[in-house]
């Protein structure tokens, strides 16, 4: 490490410089689906990905929570666990962790300096320069495969699956949580096309766990699994769960699976959707037990599930007034949030602040939210692809007119001022919710928790 700092040829002198170089590529290069650049990177780095056991997770919603459950349980069982997730909520290094600890700055600096000449070399070829997300993916693989050597890596896709840079790995197990209306401008304009893209992470002979429904979308996953001779475990088919108790911050369910049944499984995350995510995680752990001799005692399973935290998803960040953060940003996420607001939380009035990216299905999202709110404050995330607040307000007014419903709509483009308005309107028995893109959630969360701005991003 010291040697690299002293070497004049080292491109970056600090971790902050290295991160600025990586993040700056998002504006310049955007996203370029395809695996050629990743294949070249891995080859030139000596294939560190081949030393690791990956649990590859794709899906429209629920990926992050499922990853959090798996990481927490495997750690409770005594395993070292690497995680790669996106987008990050507070700072760049959050996305690459071992046992919940971010990649250290000195390690990041050393690895990026090692990678930089290779990235420059690839940029000169016909495949073009590697993107921000590709470099981040390669950095995670280098950290796990050359420095930390965790027992398992919980590996979340960035976008889609088939051409996502994370698809460079050959996992021990694959998860597709669900398929919904998101990133359709990139992945395809029907749910079947989105499902086909996500099914692209299924590998020959590698077991697949899914909670995908409805049938026509599930059948895309099923057909791909059959073609790859990969055993498919589907919620409602090979495994199931029954909700036993549901209270605020405490739920239990009975799990039934092909290898055994487990009763009274506890979680502390809220919402019925979290039972589904936890059941998918339990089925995955059952496959690891059955086929890879992973030791998961019930005591550790229960402890890991109960201790799972997932920031920015139904997260109560303030008690006075009550402010709930939830990164729902597509119609399915909004439906899940609406269901939780009706079944889990009590309030006199509901005040909601929303900021979206311009590429999202705003109408589908608002259809679920508008019937519940008393106040809707529309703002804009501090991000280059932000959705226009006035346009979003226009869609909301049209929908309210169809619903024959009156809601107080406030347009405030500055999210900090919008947050002040939200806070001032929320009385003791009311509930405030901040929802929409995680770029907004990360800013609001950092501001409420630490009174600082976040370094959010893909």
UniProtKB/TrEMBL annotation:
Residues 312-437 form the Mur ligase C-terminal domain. Residues 57-284 form the Mur ligase central domain. Signal peptide: none annotated. Belongs to the folylpolyglutamate synthase family. Pfam families: Mur_ligase_C, Mur_ligase_M. It catalyses: (6S)-5,6,7,8-tetrahydrofolyl-(gamma-L-Glu)(n) + L-glutamate + ATP = (6S)-5,6,7,8-tetrahydrofolyl-(gamma-L-Glu)(n+1) + ADP + phosphate + H(+). It comes from the Bacteria. It comes from Paenibacillus phytorum. Keywords: ATP-binding, Ligase, Magnesium, Metal-binding, Nucleotide-binding. Its EC number is 6.3.2.17. This is tetrahydrofolate synthase. SUPFAM superfamilies: MurD-like peptide ligases, catalytic domain, MurD-like peptide ligases, peptide-binding domain.
């Amino acid at each position: 490490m010291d040697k690299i700092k002293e070497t004049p040829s080292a491109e970056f002198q600090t971790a902050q410089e290295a991160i600025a170089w990586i993040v700056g590529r998002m504006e310049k290069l955007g996203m370029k689906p395809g695996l050629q650049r990743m294949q070249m990177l891995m080859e030139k780095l000596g294939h560190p990905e081949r030393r690791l056991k990956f649990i590859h997770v794709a899906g429209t919603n629920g990926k992050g929570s499922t990853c959090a459950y798996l990481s927490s349980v495997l750690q409770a069982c005594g395993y070292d666990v690497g995680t790669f997730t996106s987008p990050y909520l507070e700072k760049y290094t959050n996305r690459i962790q071992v046992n919940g600890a971010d990649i250290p700055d000195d390690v990041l600096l050393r690895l990026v300096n090692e990678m930089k000449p290779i990235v420059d070399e690839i940029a000169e070829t016909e495949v073009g320069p590697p993107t921000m997300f590709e470099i981040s993916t390669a950095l995670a693989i280098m950290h796990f495969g050359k420095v930390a050597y965790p027992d398992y890596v919980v590996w979340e896709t960035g976008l889609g699956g088939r051409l996502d840079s994370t698809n460079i790995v050959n996992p021990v197990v694959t998860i597709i949580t669900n398929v919904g209306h998101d990133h359709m401008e990139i992945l395809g304009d029907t749910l079947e096309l989105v499902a086909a893209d996500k099914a692209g992470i299924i590998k020959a002979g590698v077991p697949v766990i899914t909670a995908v429904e409805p049938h026509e979308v599930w059948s895309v996953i099923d057909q791909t699994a059959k073609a790859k001779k990969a055993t498919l475990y589907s919620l409602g088919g090979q495994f199931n769960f029954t909700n036993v108790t549901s209270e605020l911050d405490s739920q239990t369910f009975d799990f039934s699976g092909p290898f055994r049944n487990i009763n009274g499984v506890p979680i502390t995350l809220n919402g019925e959707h979290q039972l589904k995510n936890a059941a998918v995680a339990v089925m995955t752990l059952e496959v690891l037990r059955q086929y890879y001799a992973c030791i998961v005692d019930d005591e550790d399973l229960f402890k890991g599930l109960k201790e799972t935290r997932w920031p920015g998803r139904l997260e109560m960040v303030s008690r006075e007034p009550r402010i709930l953060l939830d990164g729902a940003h597509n119609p399915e996420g909004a439906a899940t949030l609406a269901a939780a607001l009706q079944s889990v939380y009590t309030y006199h009035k509901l005040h909601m602040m929303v900021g979206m990216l311009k590429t999202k299905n705003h109408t589908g999202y608002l259809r679920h939210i508008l019937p519940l709110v008393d106040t809707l404050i529309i703002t804009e995330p501090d991000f280059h692809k932000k959705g226009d607040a006035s346009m979003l307000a226009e869609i909301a007014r049209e929908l309210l007119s169809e619903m024959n419903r009156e809601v107080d709509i406030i347009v405030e483009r500055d999210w900090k001022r919008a947050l002040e308005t939200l806070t001032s309107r929320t009385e003791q028995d009311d509930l405030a919710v901040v929802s929409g893109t995680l770029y907004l959630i990360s800013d609001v969360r950092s501001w409420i928790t630490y009174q600082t701005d976040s370094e959010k991003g893909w």
